[in-house]
Amino acid sequence: MSNLCPRWNYLSNHLSDVDGRIILIWQHPMQVQIVNQSRQSITCLLSLPNQEAFYFTSVYASNETADRVDLWAELLLLHATLDLDNNKWMIGGDFNQIIYPYEHSSDSIYAPDINMYHMRDCLLQAGLFDLRFNGPIHTWTNNQPESPIAKKLDRLLVNSAFLSTFSHAYASFLPQLFSDHTPCLIDLAFSLPKAETHPFKFQNYLTKHPNFSELILDAWVLARSMSCNLKHFFWKLKIIKNDLKRLNKR
């Protein structure tokens, strides 16, 4: 790594996994203090000049269902140990799991399964939700033109404490390069929308969609931790708006 990225700092989870599934690379003036590592995640305290420090967890979840269940338990333990209801937390990476049927490109996936519910329950208990983003809904493809499959396996999640400080933060999922996953670029303070930005318009016909009620309920419940005041209520509506936009495109 020193030869590939001279004058950069890095750390990995080689102590927890012989293959070192996760590598974090950063440069001055960012300061990184490792807090916890495992086979599927690294958690650090990140400090930037003139900004409040926040916790960041990088995730590379296993392909095995049982291992991912261990990851959900690990994240909930971090949530309790680091008092992450009151401290800023960002978590991102490859979760190897979708949480809604529409996050799978196949029409055969039309109902939530137990694995989706396990991850949803983890996010709900930890007070985590998707940071607003642009780019493709599906972040992974199997690169097989004869039988293509695409899923949303990669996410950038935050809690309400993070959003209270970095209220203009934004994630962009970019086109695939050499990987079968899309890279994610995070802007902690993006420009405010321009005056000509088109407002959201609710389409009444969406209420007749067979998945409408389930989608609204799932989004509302998942965002429960943000409902304590009007500002957080606004972000709750933003999450539902994004889901409705995706439903409108189906």
UniProtKB/TrEMBL annotation:
<dbReference type="Pfam" id="PF03372">
    <property type="entry name" value="Exo_endo_phos"/>
</dbReference>
<dbReference type="InterPro" id="IPR005135">
    <property type="entry name" value="Endo/exonuclease/phosphatase"/>
</dbReference>
<dbReference type="InterPro" id="IPR036691">
    <property type="entry name" value="Endo/exonu/phosph_ase_sf"/>
</dbReference>
<dbReference type="GO" id="GO:0003824">
    <property type="term" value="F:catalytic activity"/>
</dbReference>
<feature type="domain" description="Endonuclease/exonuclease/phosphatase">
    <location>
        <begin position="16"/>
        <end position="181"/>
    </location>
</feature>
<protein>
    <recommendedName>
        <fullName>Endonuclease/exonuclease/phosphatase domain-containing protein</fullName>
    </recommendedName>
</protein>
